[in-house]
Design goal:
alpha/beta, 5-stranded mixed β-sheet, 7 helices, 35% helix, 27% strand
């Protein structure tokens, strides 16, 4: 059984195949703004699959993908409402509105670190931090909630777009905390300042839950954030795809 995995996020949509529950290393990508029946068909040329598992946070794109792929194979859309998920989402009162990306990420992280209190960081257009705690009775781990912040790129882009003279900047570690020019000053404020934002969210969550947490990161900015935060235990670029497989199995 070959499954087509789709991670449909705001900026990019990733496609991969999974054989016997294991994602293949090849990942094909389309900008989400360019999704269309023709572009999806061209991207998937040469791939054969029996099922489709779709994780989407873009409703109109999910409808398009479901419409054009359901003619090829059955499409399963991932949500917290699926039965028999390996993580219990019932402790979270708003599980009906929980993003599918957050669902699959915590499921994958809980499988990687069984029995551990976890915080899952997904660094994309938005940065989400999600908390999973082990069950006191030895049952399924419990999802209890999290935080949503502007992504690092979104933060930098807002400065550029909302001002007359601040440039678009590369997202990288600045050489100086006290910038010697406008780009360095923006990198200091955005990148180094972002470390402070994340550390405060992590510390507040750990204090509220009363336990230290294993921090698992994924998403496009995760490698950069791992340079900022030695607290990050693991960076897994395939975390979302692994979670889609586990939720769809």
């Amino acid at each position: 059984m070959t499954m087509l995995l789709i991670d449909n996020s705001n900026g990019r949509t990733k496609f991969a195949l999974a054989e016997e529950g294991v994602p293949a290393p090849e990942v094909r990508v389309l900008p989400t703004a360019e999704l269309a029946e023709a572009s999806v068909s061209a991207l998937l040329q040469g791939w054969r699959f029996n099922r489709v598992a779709l994780c989407s946070v873009v409703p109109h794109a999910a409808e398009l993908l479901t419409r054009c792929l359901s003619l090829k194979a059955p499409v399963q859309r991932i949500s917290a409402a699926l039965a028999d998920l390996p993580v219990d989402f019932a402790p979270y009162p708003a599980s009906a509105t929980l993003g599918a990306d957050r669902v699959v990420n915590v499921v994958a992280a809980a499988a990687l670190f069984p029995g551990k209190p976890l915080m899952v960081l997904d660094a994309g257009t938005a940065t989400t931090l999600d908390v999973v705690l082990p069950s006191a009775a030895g049952g399924r781990p419990r999802y209890i909630g999290g935080s949503i912040a502007p992504g690092l790129g979104t933060l930098a882009s807002a400065l550029h777009c909302a001002t007359a003279q601040l440039p678009s900047i590369p997202l990288s570690l600045p050489e100086h905390a006290v910038g010697r020019n406008t780009t360095e000053a923006m990198q200091s404020g955005c990148v180094l300042g972002y470390r402070g934002l994340l550390r405060e969210l992590i510390a507040s969550a750990e204090a509220e839950c009363g336990v230290p947490m294993t921090l698992v990161a994924t998403g496009g900015d995760a490698p950069l954030l791992a340079q900022l935060l030695p607290e990050i235990t693991c960076v897994d670029p395939l975390l979302t795809l692994r979670g889609i497989v586990l939720c769809a199995s």
